[in-house]
Amino acid sequence: MNANLQVCIRQFPHDVVNVEHFELREVPIPSLAEGEVLVRHQFLSLDPYMRMRLADAQVGRFAMKLGDVMMGRTVGTVTASRDPAFTPGDVVLGWGGWQSCSVARAETLQKVEPLGDGSLSAYLGVLGRPGITAWLGVVSVAQLRSGESFLVSSAAGAVGSLAAQMARHIGARVVGIAGGAAKCESVVEQLGVHACVDYKAPDFKERLADATPGGVDVLFENVGAAVFDESLNRMNQHGRVAVCGLIAQYHSGEPYAFKNFPRILDRDLKVTGFRIDSNKDLHEQASKDLRAWFDAGVFKSWERVSHGLENAPEAFIAMLQGRGQGKTLVRLH
């Protein structure tokens, strides 16, 4: 490698993200200091939380500024090291960002082994932060039990699709919410859930009621706004709501006036927001369970892979717009 290709932040988006908010740069690869490692990235993970981080940075709540490399989780191969814990050829997870390679402190990297088929992408999906996030919501926050009814929004997304399969494995009756008839059909046929409701349908309210005739015991919420509002109306007495994301509100940042908010009170609902980095003490157990389930064939890993770092902005925008299904990745090498 003679140079490092990077995608940097040109402007902070005020509403909808577009490709003009990013710029492509080529910079020299810096020399390593003691304790540093050079990593050549193979895959870059694109995730909805990145939109929120851009909004946070714009108002000073998150440490990103104009001109910075866009943040992101990566998996790749060590090509040079000045730390005895790593040698060239090691495969590592890190926060390398939107660039073809990165220099990282050794303590920020996690060594992993290629899976049986030689792949690495699962470490950014089912065996990575999306999988851990799904586990936290289903197992720890909601404490889902066999025989209960489980509703998950953004059921075709990276986290939602894993949460749906996890709930099915536990023995719940699983209903998904997704955008578009074709996507709903894939959720049912490929993930094995009992039903999936198209939130874009004009009769979404009626369809959701038909799909959840016995109500909902556990809601795994990824969308927010009107989808969340209508889902609250389907909750059973003493139901549990795990709030993982609010992607419908990430673009505008405008508050949403809930019509069914009283359901939280009159049905004694337990509503819990959670973040992956606020539950680090549970990551080890989550990773053990995920690997066991993965090896047992519990999960179908959906991946939408774009090729080339220059296509990362468009892939990110497509993910935010709900195009595609499953985990969004960019293959760099």
| Category from helices, strands and their pairing | alpha/beta
Q: Assign the CATH superfamily of the largest domain.
A: Medium-chain alcohol dehydrogenases, catalytic domain
Strand tally is 15
- How much helix, percentage-wise, in residues? 25-40%
Count of discrete alpha- or pi-helical segments spanning 4 or more residues = 9
Give the CATH level 1 class of the largest domain. Answer: Alpha Beta
CATH architecture of the largest domain: Alpha-Beta Complex
Question: What can be said about this structure in brief?
Answer:
This protein is an alpha/beta fold and 333 residues long.
Features:
333 residues, Quinone Oxidoreductase, Chain A, domain 1, Rossmann fold, 2 domains, six-stranded parallel sheet, 9 helices, 15 strands, globular
Q: Would you write up a description of this structure?
A:
There is one protein chain. The protein is an alpha/beta fold and 333 residues long. It folds into two domains: 3-125 and 301-331, Medium-chain alcohol dehydrogenases, catalytic domain (Quinone Oxidoreductase, Chain A, domain 1), CATH 3.90.180.10; 129-277, NAD(P)-binding Rossmann-like Domain (Rossmann fold, 3-Layer(aba) Sandwich). The protein is built from nine helices and 15 strands. The protein has helices at residues 49-58, 129-141, 158-170, 181-191, 204-211, 225-232, 263-266, 283-295, 312-320, and strands at 3-9, 22-28, 36-46, 74-81, 91-94, 101-105, 110-112, 149-153, 173-178, 195-198, 216-221, 235-243, 270-273, 303-307, 327-331. The strands form three sheets. Strands 3, 4, 5, 6, 7, 14 and 15 form a seven-stranded mixed sheet that branches. The protein has a six-stranded parallel sheet with strand order 10-9-8-11-12-13, with helices on both faces. Helix 3 links the parallel strand 8 and strand 9. The radius of gyration is 20 Å and the shape is globular. The N and C termini lie close together (11 Å). The relative contact order is 0.15.
